[in-house]
## 1
Amino acid sequence: MRPLLPLTLILLLAACGEGEPLSPPDARLPDGGRYRGEVVNGLLQGEGRIDYPNGSWYAGTFKDGQWHGQGEWHGSNGEVYRGQFVAGLFEGLGDLTTPGSHYAGTFKHGRRDGEGTLKQHDQTYRGQFKDDQYDGAGQLELADGSRYQGLFAKGKPNGAGVRSDASGNQFSGHFIDGQLEGAGTYDSVEGEQYIGEFKENRLEGRGRYENADGDVWIGDFKDGALSGQGELLGSDGSRYKGGFQDWRFSGQGHLHLADGSQYIGGFDNDAYQGSGRLIQADGRVEAGQWINGVRVRDDKGTLLPDPLDLALLNQGKLLDEALAKVPRSAPPIQLYSLVLAGDGQQSVFLREADYVSNMLRVRFGARGQVTLVNHRDHLADRPMATRENLTRAARTLAERSGPEDIVFVYLTSHGSHDHQLVLDQPRLQLADLSADELANALAPLKDRDKVIVISACYSGGYIAPLKDDRTLIMTAARPDRVSFGCSEEADFTYFGDALFAQALNQTDDLKQAFELARNSVAERERREGFEASEPQIWAPPQVLAHWQRLRRQQAEEALKNKAQPAAPEQAKKPGTR
């Protein structure tokens, strides 16, 4: 038997790990537990181990029959505790793992109490505990990146603290049961800030809100919006004092505009409504009754002609004048442009269209330009963005340009999931522009190399009907995704900003500019917690090469003009300028 002794010792030692030891117990407990260790005067004392019938066990020190001192507990439900015990309970410093959670810290009477770190499911808490709950100073982090740092009571944020959401927007102030209540501050990653009263995390009560552009709202907030008496201090120098409803002018108010004019009277949904008086910058006064921003009667009650009627009579002339300015082609290569702002309800499209037209003229040398705009304030002085005007503009560009030229087309508006580009002029019912209708409108340009850029939701659905070997197409989104940035206050949509205000000011390579813009939009959407719009591109090599020839030609012309000596200044007669 002597040769078998080493093997027997190995088996006994191995069995003393996670399983029950094979050696006979030193005592059997009334609850069925098997104890191995010291027994003094009938009590478990010193080092020992208990194995229970359900598979749970304890190994460590005992005092007077109870777990006491350093030990290790394994429950049949998967619970594991390593640390200090007092009178049979977790007490002092310990480490507890249960299915789905892990805690390292201090215990008191079997509960988490004192300083510790708890990781469970999708959250991690570091700080103070009391009776198994977050209590005292601590920091809670969620898997999505949001977190709260401050005071807790009974497991929830209670007291002074700072909460950051997944996008990095920050709320600070006094919390009650996890809700920001009373005086507090909101700071967004975009540079917006609110200082004032909160109720259940919403802007509620007196406060001051400033957006990233520097516009400031001061007044009474309700359900997260300025509703009641307040003021707006515009970054452009305009200012308003009066009633608001959901951020918009409503009720009686006094508006000072940036151009020096002012209006005193009734408002509704940001428009002049009811009795009011408009004082122009030159001192002229227009008083009377207003409906949706239009004066319909003078101060004596006399019915006035509708500005819409007058503006519609002038639309044909405005388009003819714009098309007449398009010059005929001159060799070797010329750039023509057609820009459309579709939705007149929001000023962002007008601002973006004008920026792009100006950029194509100044930076890329566009000669023949047509810009069609829908906007509530420009029906009388800008040719409208309609399907017919678009068709006539494309026909004129086809007639005036040559086969060696390039046409740049930009459209910005809202878009629908069935791929309709919104054409909307307030007080008019215009037909929207489908992808097939856009292709038909641009058909006169089929023999021209073209760059078409569309900034709208679901605009990827326009690529298939438009694409060919002579048409480069960029869109702000996939066919099944929305794009972002459409608001009254904004200067650009997200895609328009990324492509024109940023990328094309860094490079004149169209494909490289698109990649820069796509990455910029993706990062912005990720930062703000939006679903990715995923801009799309169709880039035929022929069009890319043609564009580069245009840019080389323009660079050579610029160098040639710079190298030519300036003509001598002619002598002037006395008294002339």
## 2
Amino acid sequence: MTAVDPGRLEAVARELRAEHLARRNDQGFWEGELSSSALSTATAVTALAISDAQRFSEPVDHGIRWITDHVNRDGGWGDTIDSPSNLSTTVLCWAALHATGQASTYAGICTRAEERIAAFTGQAVTPGTLARALLSHYGKDRTFSVPILTHCALSGVLGPGKQAWRHITPLPFELATLPHGLFKWLGLPVVSYALPALIAIGQARHHHAPSRNPIARAARSLTRRKTLRILGSIQPDSGGFLEAAPLTSFVLMSLASIGLAKQAVAKRCGAFLTDTVRDDGSWPIDTNLATWVTTLSVNAGDPGEDDGRTRQWLLAQQYRTVHPYTHAAPGGWAWTHLSGGVPDVDDTAGALLALARLNLSPDEENASVPPAIQWLLNMQNRDGGFPTFCKGWGTLPFDKSCTDLTAHVLRALETWKHTDIAIRPAIERGLAFLRKTQETDGSWIPLWFGNQRVANQNNPVFGTARVVCGLTHLEAAGLSVEPGVMQKGIHFLLANQNDDKGWGGQRGIPSSIEETGVTIEALSPHAASDPQVAQALDDATGWLVEQCEQQAWRRPTPIGLYFSSLWYAEKLYPIVFARRALACRS
């Protein structure tokens, strides 16, 4: 038992439960709310202005006002209003002011932004230095560097005409005509989910500055119409590719720049952007993470809190057909219930864990669980780890096997071990992957969570806590986990507890409810056998209770790491992580 007064703990737990359930909607799921994003807003207003400045003048002007109202003190912008300035977002916001014709109106803000960009690059701002800095920042992964530079070219800040486009690496959009199964062997310069950008930006680059190579130039000219048809075939009903404003905006601005603003794909992109703009003029990085936060909510709460609606809603989100975008087999779940979602490993594992707590009927279990387990097994990479979207795409960071997802999947597989599907070999291979990827200090680095204040923006505390949770679950189920592996992870967490007794991304980084909550969950099963763990948990629970009494859960921390290292905060995260932690300590 925690040393915190039980009455205080119970009062906080009761308040969090009431707040949490109040945010569940009438359909039984949690939609959550992602932070507004300067990066999303900059790309959206630029795309709308290039598409039809007169028609979209209201959302464009409103968005520009939001951007100029949220500039940081140093003259730059970060991904959220609580984020430090970074090169990419500052460049995009600065370019958006030019693209929308507002640079002279906000001349002072533009000047300070240029100074901030020069400070990032160490050189005066010129088209060449800007291009080199962005390409260097993202390395061989062109998923985001090429779209940013395209945004800059269309905004006029890379110079005139073809000269601007020569700073942009051509994208081989003609490869999109090949069978999808070949993509992972082609060495594409973008990650698997960026096919819309490959096609649209590739076409814009080809239009504005055709390749000097006659073979490439001919291939791109010949496949232009076919790749546009492919782009239309993978566009979701909402119009938003991946439900993401930046990706959708890059597609729209590229198509509009080559005279296709009235083409069907572009019109649907514009409709998506106008449908998803917020009342304050901003856009989030993605419409929502409804499926993800719902599974987190179920796993943090009491199974008795569901009256059947959550179970039915979650079952309905499982994909029953091949996905037209990634060609994923039936059986998985996406992060959102909206049409732009794509089945992925983390959400499928989360859904399986949630369903195990929701009292499925035998028919519901037979219809949903075996396909999901088989879907996950089919996603395991040769290295034993699990990727996010597509098996075998191991070249670029967001397509590789990752530790947090692997631990999550192993936990889900073991939870449903009573099915007839053989899961033990996959678990053993996954454990081997986790052993290989443990850092020398005992930590594991996650993929989808980071910390803005850590030097390399990793989040070893969060990643290690997630993996320790998975390993502990497996050990409790009777599987053999090497004691040294588990203990090194536990010792890392203990060594990185802050002086205030909470946890941040690592020792010395400000503590957050999210990071402290997941670490308490990870360490709680080990308190009885380790007095040092027990003391650390008593101290951490005291910190967490005090923070919740002050309602710090109303201020989510930007620890979410979206595609291409874009940061976000989610309003439900501190609530669900705190609820889960307090349940472990009661």
